[in-house]
Amino acid sequence: MTRSYDETVDAFLDRVREARNAGDARAYAAQFSEDASYIAFMGEVILGRSQIERTHHEVFTMRQRGTRMIVKPIDVRSVDVDTSVVTTIGGVGAQPAFGYDKFQT
């Protein structure tokens, strides 16, 4: 991982985390391309920005309402100059003491 990819991935993950912690499914989904493939920690595959938004609206307003997310990249693979596949480790919880317990690509 080069420094420029580190900074780009870190900035992306910061925007994702901020939108997620605000419970804003639209802002969260906006961080992904229109035709994104999103693989959630349980292996669920979500295809496309609109499906990412719909799925996360339910997550943010029902199942995980009021929770916060931590996330950090553990692997970044460059596909081309504009595209990377990022594998992260993260966690979601209501208390500041929750830890990293999920992998996601």
Report the mean per-residue pLDDT as an integer: 85
Termini separation (Å)? 16 Å
Q: Helix and strand string, N-terminal first?
A: HHEEHEEE
Helix amount: 25-40%
Strand fraction: 25-35%
Return the structural class: alpha+beta
Largest beta sheet: what is the strand line-up?
Answer: 3-4-5
Number of helices: 3
Rg over CA atoms, rounded to whole Å, is 13 Å
Principal-axes shape call: globular
Number of strands: 5
Low-confidence stretches: none
Largest beta-sheet details: 3 strands, antiparallel
Features:
105 residues; globular; two-stranded antiparallel sheet; alpha+beta; three-stranded antiparallel β-sheet
Write a structural description:
With 105 residues, the protein is an alpha+beta fold. 37% of the residues lie in helices and 31% in strands. The protein is built from three helices and five strands, in the order H-H-E-E-H-E-E-E. The protein has helices spanning 3-21, 25-29, 49-63; strands spanning 37-39, 45-47, 68-80, 83-93, 102-104. The strands form two sheets. Strands 3-4-5 form a three-stranded antiparallel beta sheet, covered by helices on one side. A hairpin with an 8-residue loop joins strand 4 (83-93) and strand 5. The mean pLDDT is 85.
Please write out the topology.
Layout: H1 3-21, H2 25-29, E1 37-39, E2 45-47, H3 49-63, E3 68-80, E4 83-93, E5 102-104
Antiparallel strand pairs: 1-2, 3-4, 4-5
Quick recap of the structure?
Helices cover 37% and strands 31% of the residues. It contains three helices and five strands, in the order ααββαβββ.
